[in-house]
């Protein structure tokens, strides 16, 4: 291989666990959104058997909207947090 096509493999040496921890420190609301999504899906599956007269499609739509709402809310909070850190929390020179 030629030297101009060599790529630094330092990012590939990182295992999955340390990469997840690093990414969680960079954007802390991403794992919160993922955990909330998983919790809402688990709750929806738990309530699936006791949904009463509600149609399956209506139940699934409600759970999808709740999960998406949680993820969008976490993304919005994360964006606000990063904007706060970038623009207001920086010490002025």
UniProtKB/TrEMBL annotation:
Record's keyword terms, sorted: Membrane, Transmembrane, Transmembrane helix
One cellular component (GO) term of this entry: mitochondrial membrane
Q: Where is the HIG1 domain?
A: 1-93
Localization of this protein: Mitochondrion membrane
The membrane spanning regions, by residue number, are: 27-45, 65-84
Q: Which residues form a coiled coil?
A: none
Stated name of the protein? HIG1 domain family member 1A, mitochondrial
């Amino acid at each position: 291989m030629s030297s101009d096509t060599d790529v630094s493999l330092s990012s590939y040496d990182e295992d999955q666990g340390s990469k997840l921890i690093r990414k969680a420190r960079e954007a802390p609301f991403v794992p919160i959104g993922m955990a909330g999504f998983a919790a809402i899906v688990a709750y929806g599956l738990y309530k699936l058997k006791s949904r009463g007269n509600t149609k399956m499609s209506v139940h699934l739509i409600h759970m999808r909207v709740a999960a998406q709402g949680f993820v969008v809310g976490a993304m919005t909070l994360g964006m606000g947090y990063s904007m706060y850190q970038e623009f207001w929390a920086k010490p002025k020179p």
